[in-house]
């Protein structure tokens, strides 16, 4: 018994030796090592490019004003301080804006996902004359740039009226500009930001779910909506998560619609575009004129941007595992 | 007398039940998309003025379009510039994202981390953050300091690259293109998040048995990329090209100009006509691109 294992071991060693003495073995080894090296360099390089702006902001945000004028300080500040964060938080009413934005983005996310998941499911199941044309409309909404319908949309929300119903109760149509209603209405009816894309994603996903599953549920006595809620939705979780993340983030970052509809800086993205002016206003003593150092102002602005994206990054850290690992099933691919 | 009940098979019923699910979207499409679209077309042919009771409209024919195309000094230049930028950027974005997706699809240590980093631009590179990014004071200072430390400027580095390429006999235009690409690497990387996502998802759906079979037949990795990966992923290349075009144009100069014409100069009719010309240009371009690419696209089933 012992001799047989020994001989097996020896033959294995011989075999290894034989393989290693060949040039081609080393050539392939070298090739694969070289590839691993190149890949590592590439991936870390690109990762650095992506992370660089965030790193730079973090570095700037923790700096003390003294460090700004110190030529020896480039990356790592000598005096760590949280003053910048405090200043931004006070000057821009940050907690209130954060709450506003989170609420708005969250609500929009839920409404939008709900509408799109319904529409996507519907589109994957209908099949009658003209259903292709109807789905063509979804593609059409993706293709038309939002600027094309910008003015009518604005006027529509300025004089909001659905088939004259509102005018029956009040003397004049409602003015919804500078409220949150336009966001809620457009997302609930599936015409928010890039909604066509979401409908497309869901439709592609649901086309991959076998019909037999629904039929089995139907035979067992579940209604259409019951089947949808109990059978289809749980299966669709990966794509739901993807769409939710997209929807939340795009609403959070969107400056186009928010600037169109909200006049005051009530949410994060519109706050960001006016941040510099607001900080200047805050720093100016009442009645006096004040010319702050542009470097200092820029430092504060960088802090503000960092504070605006931090919640997104934190959220992404929680969701990303689910998002990254399950996307092959998320219906992004037909 | 009893009415004959409309009899349908289960499948037929299912087909029509789907309509209920679409209804909310369809209502939105009618009221929030189709109506504004028609209105926008009407506005583009008329002079629109806001007053206390709402707005008044006056039909002016093609005047707005003539104004946008022949009178306004910025519009045509801005439009060609945005389109040109897009034509330059989109191939780079698509090639880069395919490359990155192939990298991220391999098995290596820290794959989850690098994937997480590569998809980060999906979150960050949109809207107002990106616009603040450029031309910031403090960041310029730090960049300058780092470059001083390494003793050379970015300008110099790309000059070196250009010289190298010229000497090896590469066409002048291609050199310019590549050098430009190197200088815009940040822009390209940050705008290809969604595209990488789509490509990775596509790569994962290619069955491994294809690769195994080709490996047994003696194909190298290079060959199996061009004979398997590329054809299998070609439908997604079309998707990604179209997505990149649309995404790229959203933040372009022309869109800004359209918005400013409407809400700073209050020339609503002119702005609407600008938007329609813009839309026509995009659709023409998309149509041409889709035609060209879809000829080469390979569908597995």
Give a short overview.
With 334 residues, chain A is an all-alpha fold.
Topology:
The complex is a heterodimer of chains A (334) and B (301).
Chain A (H helix, E strand, L loop, with lengths): L1 H19 L2 H39 L3 H4 L14 H9 L2 H32 L5 H13 L6 H9 L6 H5 L11 H8 L6 H13 L3 H9 L4 H12 L1 H17 L2 H6 L6 H16 L10 H32 L9
Helix pairs in contact in A: 2-16, 4-16, 5-9, 5-10, 5-13, 6-10, 10-13, 11-12, 13-16, 15-16
Chain B lengths: L9 H35 L1 E6 L2 E6 L3 H9 L3 H31 L5 H8 L1 H5 L3 H6 L3 H14 L3 H14 L4 H12 L1 H6 L2 H12 L3 H9 L4 H30 L2 H11 L4 H29 L5
Antiparallel strand pairs in B: 1-2
Helix pairs in contact in B: 1-15, 2-15, 3-11, 3-13, 8-9, 11-13, 13-15, 14-15
Structure overview:
The complex is a heterodimer of chains A (334) and B (301). With 334 residues, chain A is an all-alpha fold. Chain A folds into two domains: 2-47, no CATH class; 87-329, MetI-like fold, CATH 1.10.3720.10. Chain A contains 16 helices and no strands. Chain A has helices at residues 2-20, 23-61, 65-68, 83-91, 94-125, 131-143, 150-158, 165-169, 181-188, 195-207, 211-219, 224-235, 237-253, 256-261, 268-283, 294-325. The mean pLDDT of chain A is 78. With 301 residues, chain B is mainly alpha-helical. Chain B has a two-stranded antiparallel ribbon. In chain B, helix 3 packs parallel to helix 11 and helix 13 (221-250) runs antiparallel to helix 15 (268-296). Chain B starts with 9 loop residues before the first helix and ends in a 5-residue tail after the last helix. Chains A and B meet through helix 2, helix 5, helix 6, helix 7 and helix 9 of A and helix 1, helix 3, helix 4, helix 5 and helix 6 of B.
> Which strand-content bin applies to the residues of chain B?
under 5%
CATH class of the largest domain in chain A: Mainly Alpha
Strand order of the largest sheet of chain B: 1-2
Main pleated-sheet profile of chain A: none
Regarding quaternary structure, how should these chains be classified?
heterodimer
User: How many angstroms does the end-to-end distance of chain A come to?
Assistant: 58 Å
Helix and strand composition category of chain A: mainly alpha
Derived from helix and strand composition plus strand pairing, the structural class of chain B reads: mainly alpha
What radius of gyration of chain B results from the CA coordinates?
26 Å
CATH homologous superfamily descriptor of one domain in chain B: MetI-like
Q: Determine Rg of chain A (CA atoms, Å).
A: 29 Å
Order of helices and strands of chain B: HEEHHHHHHHHHHHHHH
Mean pLDDT of chain B: 78
Number of β-strand runs of chain B:
2
- Work out the helicity level of chain B: over 70%
* Total count of strands of chain A: 0
Contiguous runs where pLDDT drops below 50 for at least 5 residues of chain B = 151-156
Overall 3D geometry of chain A? flat
């Amino acid at each position: 018994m012992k001799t047989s294992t020994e001989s097996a071991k020896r033959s294995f060693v011989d075999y290894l030796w034989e393989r290693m003495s060949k040039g081609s073995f080393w050539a392939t080894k070298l090739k694969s090592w070289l590839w691993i090296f190149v890949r590592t360099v590439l991936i870390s390089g690109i990762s650095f490019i992506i992370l660089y702006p965030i790193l730079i902001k973090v570095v700037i945000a923790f700096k003390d004003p003294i460090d700004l004028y110190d030529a020896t300080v480039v990356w790592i500040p000598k005096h760590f301080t949280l003053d910048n964060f405090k200043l931004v938080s006070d000057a821009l009413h940050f907690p209130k804006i954060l709450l506003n934005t989170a609420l708005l983005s969250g609500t929009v996310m839920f409404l939008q996902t709900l509408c799109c998941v319904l529409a996507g499911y519907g589109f994957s199941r209908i099949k009658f004359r003209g259903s292709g044309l109807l789905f063509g409309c979804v593609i059409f909404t993706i293709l038309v740039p939002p600027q094309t319908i910008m003015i009518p949309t604005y006027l529509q929300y300025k004089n909001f009226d659905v088939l004259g119903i509102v005018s029956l109760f009040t003397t004049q149509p409602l003015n919804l500009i500078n409220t949150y209603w336009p966001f809620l209405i457009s997302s609930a009816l599936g015409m928010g930001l890039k909604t066509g894309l979401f409908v497309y994603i869901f439709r592609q996903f649901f086309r991959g779910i076998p019909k037999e599953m629904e039929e089995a549920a139907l035979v067992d006595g579940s209604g259409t909506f019951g089947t949808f809620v109990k059978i289809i939705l749980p299966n669709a979780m990966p794509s739901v998560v993807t769409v939710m993340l997209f929807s939340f983030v795009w609403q959070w970052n969107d400056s186009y619609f928010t600037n169109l509809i909200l006049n005051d800086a009530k949410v994060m993205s519109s706050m960001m575009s006016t941040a510099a002016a607001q900080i200047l206003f805050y720093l100016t003593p009442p009645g006096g004129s004040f010319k702050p150092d542009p470097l200092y102002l820029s430092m504060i602005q960088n802090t503000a941007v960092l504070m605006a994206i931090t919640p997104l990054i934190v959220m992404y850290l929680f969701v990303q595992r689910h998002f990254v690992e399950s996307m092959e099933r998320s219906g992004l691919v037909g | 007398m009893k009415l004959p009940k409309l009899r349908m098979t289960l499948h037929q019923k299912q087909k029509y039940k789907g309509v209920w699910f679409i209804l909310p979207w369809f209502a939105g499409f009618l009221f929030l998309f189709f109506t504004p679209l028609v209105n926008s077309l009407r506005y583009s042919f008329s002079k629109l003025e806001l007053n206390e009771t709402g707005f008044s409209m006056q039909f002016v024919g093609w005047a707005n379009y003539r104004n946008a195309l022949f009178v306004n000094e910025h519009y045509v230049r801005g439009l060609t510039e945005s389109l040109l930028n897009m034509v330059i950027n989109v191939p780079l974005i698509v090639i880069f994202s395919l490359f990155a997706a192939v990298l991220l699809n391999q098995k290596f240590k820290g794959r989850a981390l690098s994937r997480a980093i590569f998809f980060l631009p999906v979150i960050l590179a949109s809207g107002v953050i990106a616009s603040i990014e450029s031309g910031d004071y403090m960041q310029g200072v730090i960049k300058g300091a780092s470059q001083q430390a390494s003793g050379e400027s970015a300008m110099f580095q790309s000059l070196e690259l250009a010289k190298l390429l010229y000497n090896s006999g590469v066409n002048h235009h291609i050199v310019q293109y590549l050098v430009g690409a190197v200088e815009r690497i940040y822009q390209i990387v940050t705008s290809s998040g969604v595209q990488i996502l789509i490509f990775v998802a596509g790569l994962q759906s290619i069955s491994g048995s294809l690769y195994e079979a080709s490996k047994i037949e003696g194909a190298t990795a290079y060959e199996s990329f061009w004979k398997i990966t590329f054809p299998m992923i070609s439908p997604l290349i079309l998707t990604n090209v179209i997505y990149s075009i649309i995404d790229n144009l959203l933040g372009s100069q022309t869109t800004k100009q359209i918005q400013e014409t409407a809400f700073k100069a209050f020339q609503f009719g002119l702005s609407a006509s600008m938007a329609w010309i813009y839309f026509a240009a995009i659709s023409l371009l998309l149509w041409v691109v889709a035609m060209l690419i879809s000829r080469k696209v390979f569908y597995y089933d």
